[in-house]
């Protein structure tokens, strides 16, 4: 199974969580529902400066635009990995370790990721068939030498699609 959709779900579909006006110390800056896993990120190899998602919240069948900026403190080389967990309510859908360098090709990046400023721009067409419900996604990312890169989590709510109603005239058996 390709992990590109679940991996990007953390960054992308995570925007489907309810918008929050107050920002806490774990909230990722920008217009998104992402949260850092740990308040102490001083040893992380990446500083995430901002992540903006449009629209926020997205809906199944929509195109989602992701804009993210940050700073890479040390070059990230082949062998970096992500521990990815995805749950649907209390049901574990995915719990796996994936090759970070293979997954980031989906956002037009390649390893090594050099030290310095980084910008990501990506559009994702979300499938119409995403089942409604609450998804919890966590990605904990490490270098090939097990140095912590970052950890992000999001709670994603996909609402059921509204059921179309027939015109009132059809219900009453005539034209209105």
Automatic annotation (TrEMBL):
<comment type="subunit">
    <text>Monomer.</text>
</comment>
<comment type="similarity">
    <text>Belongs to the NPC2 family.</text>
</comment>
<keyword id="KW-0445">Lipid transport</keyword>
<keyword id="KW-0813">Transport</keyword>
<keyword id="KW-0732">Signal</keyword>
<dbReference type="GO" id="GO:0032366">
    <property type="term" value="P:intracellular sterol transport"/>
</dbReference>
<dbReference type="InterPro" id="IPR003172">
    <property type="entry name" value="ML_dom"/>
</dbReference>
<feature type="domain" description="MD-2-related lipid-recognition">
    <location>
        <begin position="34"/>
        <end position="156"/>
    </location>
</feature>
<dbReference type="Pfam" id="PF02221">
    <property type="entry name" value="E1_DerP2_DerF2"/>
</dbReference>
<dbReference type="InterPro" id="IPR014756">
    <property type="entry name" value="Ig_E-set"/>
</dbReference>
<protein>
    <recommendedName>
        <fullName>Phosphatidylglycerol/phosphatidylinositol transfer protein</fullName>
    </recommendedName>
</protein>
<dbReference type="GO" id="GO:0032934">
    <property type="term" value="F:sterol binding"/>
</dbReference>
<comment type="function">
    <text>Catalyzes the intermembrane transfer of phosphatidylglycerol and phosphatidylinositol.</text>
</comment>
<feature type="signal peptide">
    <location>
        <begin position="1"/>
        <end position="17"/>
    </location>
</feature>
<dbReference type="InterPro" id="IPR033917">
    <property type="entry name" value="ML_PG-PI_TP"/>
</dbReference>
<dbReference type="InterPro" id="IPR039670">
    <property type="entry name" value="NPC2-like"/>
</dbReference>
């Amino acid at each position: 199974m390709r992990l590109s959709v679940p991996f990007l779900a953390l960054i992308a579909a995570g925007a489907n969580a309810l918008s929050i006006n107050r920002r806490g110390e774990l909230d990722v800056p920008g217009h998104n529902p992402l949260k850092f896993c740990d308040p102490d990120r001083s040893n992380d190899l990446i500083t995430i400066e901002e992540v903006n998602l449009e629209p926020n919240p997205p809906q199944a069948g929509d195109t989602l635009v992701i804009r993210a900026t940050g700073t890479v403190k040390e070059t990230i080389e082949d062998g970096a990995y992500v521990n990815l967990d995805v749950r649907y309510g209390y049901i574990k859908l995915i719990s796996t370790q994936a090759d970070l360098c293979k997954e980031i090709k989906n956002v037009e990046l390649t390893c090594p990721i050099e030290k310095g400023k980084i910008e990501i721009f990506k559009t994702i067409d979300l499938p119409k068939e995403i089942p409604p419900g609450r998804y919890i996604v966590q990605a904990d990312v490490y270098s090939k030498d097990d140095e912590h890169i970052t950890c992000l989590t999001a709670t994603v709510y996909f609402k059921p699609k509204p059921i179309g109603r027939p015109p009132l005239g059809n219900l009453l058996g005539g034209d209105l």
